[in-house]
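Lab notes, practical 5.
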Amino acid sequence: MRVLIAGYQHETNTFAASKADWAAFNRGDSFPAFIEGQAMLDSMTGVNLPAGGFIQAARDRGWDLVPASWCGATPSAHVTEDAFERISAAFLQAVRDNDFDAMYIDFHGAGVAEHIDDTEGELLARLRRELGYDVPIVTSLDLHANVTYQMLTQADAMVSFRTYPHVDMADTGALAASLLERRVADGLREKMAYRRLPFLIPTNSQSTWLSPAKEHYELMRELDARHGTISSFCMGFAAADFPECAPMVWTYGDQAQATLDALYQAVSEPSQWRLRSVYLPDDSIQRALALAQDSDKPIVVADTQDNPSGGADGNTCGMLHALLRNEAGRKFPRKVVFGLIYDPETARQAAEAGVGAFIDAEVGTAAPTFTGELSDPPVKARYEVVSLSNGEVSLEGPMMTGLVTHLGQCALLETDGVYVIVASGKMQLLDRVQLRMMGLVPQDMEIIVIKSANHFRADFSSLVRDVETDILIAKCPGPKAVDPADYRWTRLPASIRRHP
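Output from the prediction step:
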């Protein structure tokens, strides 16, 4: 069997400020840049991305892979019309230029363009107009996909991640291969059952390393094993203001309805998804300082509302202000680190000055938040340039293992005992190698303040003493609301509650 393979990844926060233009899909900072042909297969092989898992599973089955194109951009506001139409044109041209029996697409599932609410559904519809409905199309999805009716009906089958942090990306690509194999063997689409939850789930309540999500995904695996189904539960990306933004449960197989009924009953009780402890900036740092006094391991604080994986630019400095106000660097000199901060200008200034030099700089940006107001101002101070990096490093943690990041010029700065990492590319701090890249030893830190919501847990949880007490969630002004009820929704229907 000849399988055309393609990919398009974008998670759209319609409340954010910066859009994903064509250049964003070619930077390659936290995702591989736009790539096509054999080079795509070569770059994805052995990498913990869905396409990597599908490629290996397809080769194990003896299928011939026909490469189209793959692209991804760091989460942000809308995909521009120009960028989406370029991506669509590449997909359609590959369809016209190649002979194949089936198609696999590595989607995110939460893309919104300037002119289209449901970019993945639109791509599938355009492909169907070219291919008809006899050619199977199977896709993988991120756990945060906002799954639409159009996606469910235009694809023969879809399957999403089952972990958050997403350590099973390659495994999900392999599951997509299993769905395709079942579809081809039967000659017809499998029975499908699906149902949408009537409320939004906060991102910080979704970790599958913690209850309740941990138990629900274990139940999903048990039900699939019992009924011979392949199921998915997308908890959704609750930052896209369009009518189908909400969690979705769906499943394939002869016993699809039985699996769906049991799984939906478990996940649809609202109160279990309510937010746990969330701290204001000063409270989070004061709590971290108190915990650090009695711990021989680091305390981690997540600056979740400026998370680049949630559509933010990663450039606000409210948490740095809190660290300095509470004298964290004086209490633990050079044992406190904050990053990654997207600040190409300061990174350039540091590189020109050189290691060991002192620079007067304004780190960060007063960025628009989801309320329309500005975040805290930059931190104007005198900084020592401690180390420099070109931002290229191969990720080593459980998530996106083997992916090489291209963050451009990076600098480790120090002011008043606090380390600050500035970068020229946008990416959350999710892998300890990003600290080692700057010459830091993660386990030697007392407090690590991270621009991330949950993905950091994959590599940082084993670094702390107790994941329940020593990982804190901070609510600092930024573009990505920790509570989706805080957004000013205009298009979400009344049937979908803004909170559990």
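Observations recorded by the TA: The two ends are 45 Å apart (CA to CA). Residues 236 and 283 are 29 Å apart (CA to CA).
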